[in-house]
């Protein structure tokens, strides 16, 4: 959703055993004639003056609102390259480096080799079958890498 930030105020902090300390903010955003009030929690931003704080009074923002009877939430909508929420559907992920691409290909090839040779009944102590699976995986990986 898009809306204009009307009000932001610090609202304390809380700590979670699993995730640590969070700073809370009460945020009010008006969108299409409706005011949305919710809590924004952040580990990074301690105050509304913190660099990169996502809600500035008067600015238009892309946001996500999650209604709840006691604890409604407002989150900034992550938008790639500083674009608009409309650009999300056109976003292309960053290209993988060569080592990452080879690792993914090898994982896929190994999975394919296990399926090809039938993983059922396979034991890690079955050396001939293990070598056969590995040889097939390397063959699959080479063929995939040649094709790309």
Question: Would you mind describing this structure in some detail?
Answer:
The chain is an alpha+beta fold. The protein folds into two domains: 2-90, Beta Barrel (OB fold (Dihydrolipoamide Acetyltransferase, E2P)); 98-147, no CATH class. 28% of the residues lie in helices and 32% in strands. The protein has helices at 98-117, 127-147, and strands at residues 2-16, 20-31, 34-42, 60-66, 73-76. Strands 3-2-1-4-5 form a five-stranded antiparallel sheet, with no helix packed on it. A hairpin with a 3-residue loop joins strand 1 and strand 2. Helix 1 (98-117) crosses helix 2 (127-147). The longest helix has 21 residues, at 127-147. The protein is elongated. The model is unreliable at 84-91 (pLDDT under 50).
Properties at a glance:
5 strands; alpha+beta; 148 residues; 2 domains; 28% helix; OB fold (Dihydrolipoamide Acetyltransferase, E2P); elongated
Topology of this structure?
Layout: E1 2-16, E2 20-31, E3 34-42, E4 60-66, E5 73-76, H1 98-117, H2 127-147
Antiparallel strand pairs: 1-2, 1-4, 2-3, 4-5
Helix pairs in contact: 1-2
Strand order of the largest sheet: 3-2-1-4-5
Structural class: alpha+beta
Provide a count of the helices.
2
Radius of gyration, taken over Cα atoms and rounded to an integer in Å? 25 Å
CA(first)-CA(last) distance: 39 Å
Q: For the residues shown, what is the average pLDDT?
A: 81
The major pleated sheet works out as: 5 strands, antiparallel
Overall 3D shape: elongated
CATH structural fold name of the largest domain: OB fold (Dihydrolipoamide Acetyltransferase, E2P)
Give the total of domains.
Answer: 2
Strand content: 25-35%
CATH class of the largest domain: Mainly Beta
CATH architecture of the largest domain: Beta Barrel
What is the N-to-C succession of helices and strands? Answer: EEEEEHH
Task: Flag low-confidence runs.
Answer: 84-91
């Amino acid at each position: 959703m898009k809306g204009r930030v009307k009000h932001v105020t610090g609202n304390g902090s809380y700590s979670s055993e699993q995730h640590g300390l969070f700073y809370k903010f009460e945020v009010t955003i008006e969108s299409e004639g409706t005011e949305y009030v919710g809590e924004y929690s952040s580990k990074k931003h301690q105050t509304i003056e913190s660099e990169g704080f996502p809600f500035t009074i008067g600015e238009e923002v892309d946001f996500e609102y999650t209604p709840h009877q006691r604890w409604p939430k407002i989150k900034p909508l992550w938008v790639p390259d500083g674009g608009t929420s409309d650009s999300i559907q056109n976003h292309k992920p960053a290209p993988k480096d060569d080592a990452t691409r080879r690792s993914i290909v090898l994982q896929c090839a190994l999975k394919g080799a296990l399926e090809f040779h039938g993983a059922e009944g396979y034991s890690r102590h079955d050396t001939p079958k293990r070598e056969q699976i590995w040889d097939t995986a390397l063959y699959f990986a080479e063929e995939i890498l040649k094709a790309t």
